[in-house]
Amino acid sequence: MTTELFDNLLQLLVTMAGCACSGFFYQKNRHQMYFLLTCFYGCYSLGLFYWTVYLLLFENMPQLFYVTEIAWLSALVFLGLMQYTSSSQEERDLWHSTMWIVPLLAAGAIAMYWNYGGGLFTAFHFALGAMLAWRSIQSLRYFVTNRKSGSRWRWFSLAVLIFVIGEAGLWISSLFWMGDSWRNPYFWFDSLLTAVLVTLLPVIKKAVEP
């Protein structure tokens, strides 16, 4: 079994299990965050399922993967909805000049990827990731300056920020493919994503049921 196939199967297993478990918790107490998390895991696993099946059948990455892209973009939208649902208006209004680093880095990443043949879906992906990172940094700064009960969501904000960093590293490292082995940084970033996907449910559960 190739390294990429093993990596994708593991991540698919994690997201499918996360979808089932968060759906179970939603049925148990009907908290909106569990519903959104179920949708996030579900969309992410659908994209992974298509990608993994293609690898199994053709032993190569799909050249046209709009099914996967739409599913992953949908997952990011649900993650953004989770950020909005868990935050207060005061938190969303917080502003600091250091937050400008997020759109600047995102613009640089989009320009780099576009130069290597990236398309519109890639630009949308980086733009949504930048929005998630912006909100995460905003939330973390709010929790540092305002030690209130809402700070129980700080670990969720940190997890989302790490998730975005992992995805950006994954996309950029894919431009400089270094072979199908664990020496390839691509798999380091994907392993980081898998770890964050594992922690999302416990982090949400701790925040919802403190």
Features:
mainly alpha, single chain, 8 helices, 0% strand, 210 residues
What structural class should be given to the helix and strand makeup?
mainly alpha
Main β sheet profile: none
Helix content: over 70%
Give the overall form.
Answer: globular
Average predicted local confidence, pLDDT: 85
- The unreliable regions are none
Find the count of extended strands (DSSP E, 2+ residues).
Answer: 0
Into which percentage range does the β-strand content fall?
Answer: under 5%
Report what the structure shows:
The chain is mostly helical. Helices cover 79% and strands 0% of the residues. The chain has helices spanning 3-29, 32-58, 66-86, 89-92, 101-115, 120-145, 154-174, 185-208. α5 runs antiparallel to α6. The mean pLDDT is 85.
Quick recap:
By secondary structure, the protein is mainly α. It has helices at 3-29, 32-58, 66-86, 89-92, 101-115, 120-145, 154-174, 185-208.
